[in-house]
Amino acid sequence: xxxxxxxxSPCTSFPPSKLFNHGxxxxxxxxxxxWVCKIHARAKESKHSEIKxxxxxxxxxxxxxxxxxxxxxxxxxxxxxxxxxxxPFSESExxxxxxxxxxxxxxxxxxxxxxxxxLFALFYNGRLPKNFAVFGYARRKMTDEDLRNTISKTLTxxxxxxxxxxxxxxxxxxxxxxxSGQYSSEEHFAELDNKLMEKEAGRVSNRLFxxxxxxxxxxxxxxxxxxxxxxxxxxxxxIVEKPFGRDTHSSKELTKGLKQYLTEDQxxxxxxxxxxxLVENLLVLRFSNLVFEPLWSRNYIQNVQLIFSEDFGIxxxxxxxDNYGIIRDIMQNHLLQxxxxxxMETPVSLDAEDIRNEKVKVLRSMRPxxxxxxxxxxxxxxxxxxxxxPAYTDDPTVAKNSLTPTFAAATLFVDNPRWDGxxxxxxxxxxxxSKRAExxxxxxxxxxxxxxxxFGSDLDEATNELVLRVQPNEAIYLKVNNKVPGLGxxxxxxxxxxxxxxxxxxxxxxxYERLLLDAVDGERRLFIxxxxxxxxxxxxxxxxxxxxxKKVVPELYTYGSRGPFGVHYLAATHNVRWADISCED
Length: 585
Fold this sequence. Notes:
alpha/beta, nine-stranded mixed β-sheet, six-stranded parallel β-sheet, about 30% helix, globular
């Protein structure tokens, strides 16, 4: 990274040769009304957690908090060249090491639609090292050229459609190779290892394996990769896709199997929802804005709602979905993780282990779910004129008498001093009225509200509400009450709105891009640790066992509707006004 120093700046009092080394993070502090730049050698600190202001030294969240009480920033002390928020690999490291990314299951839907496009986006934006190669590995017989033709159809320069887009695509494809083999064959992985070493050309080799395969062959693939295709000189990391088991027992068996060949630090359990922009911004919103932290408790919050709805059905994924259902697929993998991030205490630092420690505390404080606090449903088909919408059991890969829920709503409680008694209402469903993922925080009523007569009998309609919309159209907005301009006193409910596409017109990166970059950098903050899995399954496993043993019949709801009616009774049980997931805010 090239640094230009202003001779009149105090930053130049430090010899540049002693300041910058790869893996360091830039921080700032106040000194006699002047921000002075210094490097803290913290290899574990993520470069993505930096806060930057134009024309000044970049600052971390910690240094920003320390400096807010100081004087005005002195502009133009340091100018950085290169990508925002990114420290390129040093020339010496680029010359001495190489990165090999192996996509195991390269012929599958996820690899073609998400993984390869995300890798290209990182390459296009200069986020991958100079020496890297991408290998596809699957059972299907293909050549290098076949793989390139397949993935080229999904590559776009959507973030910044520059004139050299085609050139960059071709340059990326030239670094993509393919090897066919069985996932349980050490011999085939040894052949892959020979191809990897050929491309690595004697450099220090860092290898990242992405397991885009069914979970029942995770351990076989890891065994083969570890024994026959691991790096002899650099690091080896493995990204594992969900599902992470079906219950507590199977999850622990999977973890036990993986840890026969890998350490916990080598396992990156990916949850793509944790890579969404608004989910990551949740911590920034709460811990860097003084206005929210005092309100973030049972004293001011009446309930919290986490909503995940899709406007389409299983669409050919029936064999997988019927084995897992909506509770395992969405609630356990996505919504519990978001809930833990929302409800956790302030971590000691932004270090991955400090954040994950706090998430585990939240999950361990939650009551196991009981059947009385859950509503399950399954979508039924209907005809709308000439358009026909299939029922869940119309899928040819799903049994006609299947009781697998495609909709679930549950009330969760965190039994700790901050959240005691606050219901967390979680909803997840397919084939609903709208596609949406959001967090809704409903605050308590104003005590002794002077304007209660102006709101009518339903004061709940007048409560403040904070909404974080994860997708689509990322946004943060706060519902407040205000006076309508004019003579007389008439109240209205309005939004204080941060709409991302308006405030930040550039396209938001895909979550897989962020998570893949974190895995390359060794940043584990957005990946799931094994004890997080255990704590999450302890909440849901008793409920799943009871549903299956009692053969609970899910309530039917029409394809494209707002879900089963039982969800409104569930909300009423806890005196909660359930957000209408069909409305467009």
